[in-house]
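Can't paste images in this forum, so I'm doing it all in text. The chain is below; anyone willing to post the predicted structure tokens underneath?
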Amino acid sequence: MDLIPEAIGLLSIPSTADRPDELHRALEYVLDLVGPGFTVERFESNGKPSALVYEGPRRRHFPVILNAHLDVVPATPDQFVPRLEGDRLYARGAQDMKVAGLVEALVFREVRGPFALQLVTDEEVGGRDGTRHQLQQGVSADFVVIGEQSGLRLVTESKGIFNADLHAIGRAGHSAYQWNADNALLPVMRSVEKVLARYPVPTEEAWRTTVNVAKIETSNTALNQVPADATAFLDIRYPPKDTDFDGRTEAEIADYLQTFCDPGVTVSVYHLDPPHKADPGSRQVRLIEQAVRNQGYDPSILRKHGAADGRFYYQRGIDAVIFGVGGQGLHGPDEYVDVTTIDPYYQALREFLQSV
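Text version of the structure:
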């Protein structure tokens, strides 16, 4: 199959979160590829459009949903000028995950059945206005295939995610007379150090909880003034079996993180999403594995450190797996899709839907 012309067209659209018109354009591009003869339900939440496509009269439950996000992270203008070099198609979104989304749309169009194609435009900024919004409107499935990059392997487990702020209020003063002031940065920094002592920065891949100190800031702008406020912003990812976080509420996690903090430092936790886990022995997973083997690829199980929209299905007891094309460099300056994986991905996905 030759999907390169269509891929170049979609990859040329700079569908980033700050460009709502381009999000709409990317969505319409894929809907045009699917073509007529299907029911198209459109959704919108906080300015982020999405669609659900299926055959027949309006309904909400499907045996299989193919999920694809069409938004991308920001990039330099040249990354929206796709270039094909040998077996590599370079562009922002090539691996993550516009090309896989096109394959899902094509397979959906050709294997007509009781399935749905779910197209969203906000996964890179949290997925709450796309996949989660549709689920809140009653959309459900027995099984979901999310076309994120996997090199034709199957991801049945990924980490949970939340953000935490460590905040302190001190007392401003002249930096030459520090005994008359209270530097808010210092207790925040000591608290961060204690959190990192419990969850050190990994030096190699490890399936454990990680804490990224994204930024530490203060409203103070003068070097000769003691800061009166400070906040550290943390991004925390945790696997399903970490009992420090898994199964806990935002308030419970805030209380736990508070134990690492100096007096006067307060903790806020938000955007808590649990880990994603699917049954690796389910009938649907076995069918995909066999379809991948039939293409000469190894369908071994993967675990992903990053979060994806599968977590919203997991929260509702619905198995979702990540299954996509090969490539490298997602979110980087040299992102590419391995075009040799496009056809076997198409064939495996087609065989899976036909077997279901």
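The radius of gyration is 23 Å. The longest helix spans residues 94-110.
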